[in-house]
Amino acid sequence: MGRMISQLVLPFHLLLMLGVSLASLNDHRYNIGDEVPLFVNKVGPLNNPSETYQYYDLPFCQPGELLPEKESLGEVLNGDRLTNTLYQLKFGAEKDGVVLCHKKLDQNDVSKFRAAIIKDYYYQMYFDDLPFWGFVGKIEDELWTLDGKGPKYFLFKHVQFDVLYNGNQVIEIHALSDPSNVVDITEDIDLNITFTYNVRWNETSIPFKNRMARYSRASAKPVNHQIHWFSIINSIVISVLLMTFFAVSMMQRLKNDLRKWSSGDEEEDKEVGWKYLHGDVFRCPPNMPLLCAVIGAGTQLLTLFCCLFILAFLGVLYPYNRGTLLTSLVIIYTLTSAVAGYSSASFYCQFIETGWERSVTFSTVLFLGPFLLMQFFLNSVTVSFGATLAIPFGTILVIILVYTLVAIPLLALGGIIGNRRRSEFQAPSATKKCAREIPSLAWYRKTPGQMFLAGLLPFSAIVVELHQLYSTLWGYKISTLPGILFFMFIILMLLTVTLSIGLTYIQLTVEDHEWWWRSIFRGGSTAVFMFAYSIYFYCKSNMSGVFQTTIFFVYNTCICYAFFLMLGTISLRSSLMFTRHIYHAVKSE
């Protein structure tokens, strides 16, 4: 019995090990002279936010022994590589002109620094869990040089740390480079450089609980913030008016159809085209295991998004909380495997009694399979470039172990529960043996035309917020807030539901009963527009290079594919509810 309990506890213990230990207030209290933890993290070009390398890949001053900080799974996946440094910042202790080290740079070292300055490299450090940034050097064009020969490249050799504190807690930190304290590295020659730093401490009234707020405030100017809110309110108003008008029109049209149906007049009866499909509209859809897999994967991703919003509202997820978002993604996705298994199996068993295992298997492979293939390709690219985003082999083994011991059993458990709680599909009317022939359709009534319309309208409502989201994902500023994202996500789902119902009704009125798969493609078509916009966003940005381009499009492909499955599931379920309702109303008449 004890052995069985230990086997059950082990997988969940592994999940807890992946989490981030959240520091309490007491963990950030110091006395005068106490050593405050400071770690160097990574360096990279400013215009390519995903292209980062370890701090000591550049020939900075190194301690005698490099001691990497123990990191969570999310920090590793995020490319964080915290390491000790020679900088020593003691609480409340000011320093002037402290020598960090005397460094002899050979021609190769000079060339590395110059290449970094040309690409506008920055460095990132963490002080008391607060991130801060600084630049490696500067470029002076020939117009600004005394001899008229240029450009010239200068390496910053002095840093001033400005720290704000409140009582015995650190609130804010900045790293400022002295433009006059530089060394010319334009030519490939050996150099002897003395790196120095200052430390300044100033008191502030900002409370400790608000010290992360400045990272959100740095997102935009007040004018841009007002424009952002105006655009969002405009999108919400237009969406609400559109959905209200559409709903009223649909209700009036359905009432007229039901009145004509119940009147018994043959001439009026012929105008209600969808009533002829009562024996075909609930026919078992083709490729049933795959369709149920879409439902399972889409429901799991929808649950994942809802959980992330809840964590954001609870304050667990906030800007620059190292690795918490990615750790939450891994843990929640693992635990929601049961949702995928249950949704897939329960829907499948409504139509077919045996073979639900295939749909459950497909539900986990449908999203995770392509995602892992892309990650394998991406990891190969990052390893070849030596970037920090490369996932170590040990981390890969941990992820495989967690998925094998936790996700797969939960997936199977969800499938078993869904199978045992199955109920026969309650169609309002009996299904005919032979399927009704579908008449020829105009081009705009076919799948591509309906996908264009069903994707364009929701995309138009969220495009402003989508731009802000991309700016947050592929930049350094927090351009959006969880509350705004949540409202736009609700608008997106409501528009998807409304358009799915309306287009399904239009499809049935022309006596086309093959609506199952088309409803999925209609709902998921918004993701196609999202991906197209990502191409536009990349072309307008300053990102460049093979590495950053690969990272950008691989991750955006995964994000848009997840939205395709999620919105397709929402569209299918809403169309099914609508179809059941109208044919049940016909049966009642």
Automatic annotation (TrEMBL):
This protein is called what?
Answer: Transmembrane 9 superfamily member
Q: Which Pfam families match?
A: EMP70
The question of whether Signal is a record keyword is answered with yes
Write out the GO biological process terms.
protein localization to membrane
Instruction: Give the protein family.
Output: Belongs to the nonaspanin (TM9SF) (TC 9.A.2) family.
Q: What is the organism of origin for this protein? A: Solanum verrucosum
Question: Record's InterPro entries?
Answer: EMP70
According to the lineage, what is the superkingdom?
Eukaryota
Compartment annotation: Endosome membrane; Golgi apparatus membrane
Instruction: State the PANTHER family in the record.
Output: TRANSMEMBRANE 9 SUPERFAMILY MEMBER 5, TRANSMEMBRANE 9 SUPERFAMILY PROTEIN
Q: Which residues form the signal peptide?
A: 1-23
Q: Which residues cross the membrane?
A: 227-250, 290-318, 324-348, 360-378, 390-413, 451-470, 482-508, 520-538, 550-572
Q: Name one GO cellular component term.
A: Golgi membrane
**According to Swiss-Prot or TrEMBL, what is its membrane topology?**
Multi-pass membrane protein
The answer to keyword Signal applying to this record is yes
Q: Which UniProt keywords apply?
A: Endosome, Golgi apparatus, Membrane, Signal, Transmembrane, Transmembrane helix
The organism that produces this protein has a lineage beginning with:
Eukaryota, Viridiplantae, Streptophyta, Embryophyta, Tracheophyta
